[in-house]
Amino acid sequence: RDDDDINDVASMAGVNLNEESARIMATNSDLVGTQIQSCKDEPFLAAIPLHKRILETAKKLGITDVPAEVVTFISHATQNRLRTVIEKVTVITQHRMESYKDDEWYEQATDVRSQLKFFEQLERLEKQRKDEQEREILLKAAKSRSRQEDPEQARLKQKAKEMQQQELAQMRQRDANLTALAAIGPRKKRKLDAPGLLSVGGEGVGLCGGSQGTASPRQYPRQKITRVNLRDFIFYMEQEREMSRSLLLYRALLK
Predict the structure, then answer these.
(1) What's the CA gap between 28 and 20, in Å, rounded?
(2) Within a 13 Å sphere around the CA of 240, how many CA atoms are in the beta-carbon half?
(3) Can you give the residue ranges of the Transcription initiation factor TFIID component TAF4 C-terminal domain (predicted)?
(4) How does pLDDT run across 22-75, given as a tens digit for each residue?
(5) CA distances from 225 to 212, 228, 232 (A)
(6) Which of 94, 99, 160, 226 is the most exposed place for a label (fewest CB within 10 A)?
């Protein structure tokens, strides 16, 4: 043996790697270096429409012939560019969807959602107060017994009458809904089938042998979907140097 290393399994088995390599090279010498690519080069875009489009653009610049290699190169460049755009926009979307509520290194300073709810509640109370004032004015106008009424008083009386009719219709509709719900009865939740049972004709059929055996339900992995919106694309175009002043960004901002 060339060396006495006990970890050399090939030498311990009596195999000479140098002789085997020389024998393989001598046997397949005509095939070594001839196979350049193992898979077919599939263009990303349709070759014929892309070639026509390139020729239309090239004729405007005085070019009459465009070889097929140019079409393939542009197709691969488009695929690479699209992959880069999708990867960057996906990262932007994932950053936007990140939540820092449960992160111990972040502390909430302001709660805009609670502030908006508070202002909405104030507006609701103010609207309710104005409605109550208007209702009191209309009720006073409806109860007035003056013989000589001006047009404004007659208009208030008519409006009060319409308001009372509307409230009466709402009360009737509410009573009808409550009666219908009482007739239907309480809603029952649908019971899930027991694990390992297949429901056939309303009867449970066991999937496993034995009286006590039950099969665990199959769990399908839920695929995570990243939803990209227009704001993510706009943010991406604003960060890119070649697209920050483009017409495409201007059109996207107008939408």
Answers:
(1) 12
(2) 17
(3) 6-252
(4) 777 766 666 555 555 556 778 888 889 999 999 999 999 898 888 888 999 999
(5) 39, 10, 15
(6) 99
Type of residue found at 69: E
Task: End-to-end CA distance of the chain: give it in Å, rounded.
Answer: 78
DSSP state of 45: S
DSSP 16-81: -HHHHHHHHHHHTTTTTTT---SS----SS-HHHHHHHHHHHHHHTT-----HHHHHHHHHHHHHH
89 vs 223, 226, 248, CA distance in Å?
Answer: 19, 10, 16
Tokens for 40, please give them: 């077919």
C-alpha span between 142 and 152 (Å, rounded): 12
- Torsional sign, CA 140, 145, 149, 151: positive
How far apart are alpha carbons 151 and 149 in whole angstroms? 7
157: number of CA atoms within 13 Å, CB side? 11
> What are the structure tokens assigned to 160, written together?
């009060």
- CATH number assigned to the domain with residue range 43-98, chosen from the 4 options 3.30.450.40, 3.40.930.10, 3.30.450.20, 1.10.20.10: 1.10.20.10
Residue pLDDT, tens place only, 66-92: 888 899 999 999 999 999 999 999 999
pLDDT at 213 over 50: no
Q: What is the DSSP letter of 250?
A: H
Residue 46 per-residue DSSP state: -
Q: What are 14's two structure tokens?
A: 């009596």
Give Rg (Cα) of the chain. Answer: 39
* Residues forming a β-bridge with 205: 198
Q: What angle do CA 183, 186, 192 make, to 5 degrees?
A: 135
Q: Where is 197: in which H helix or E strand?
A: strand 197-200
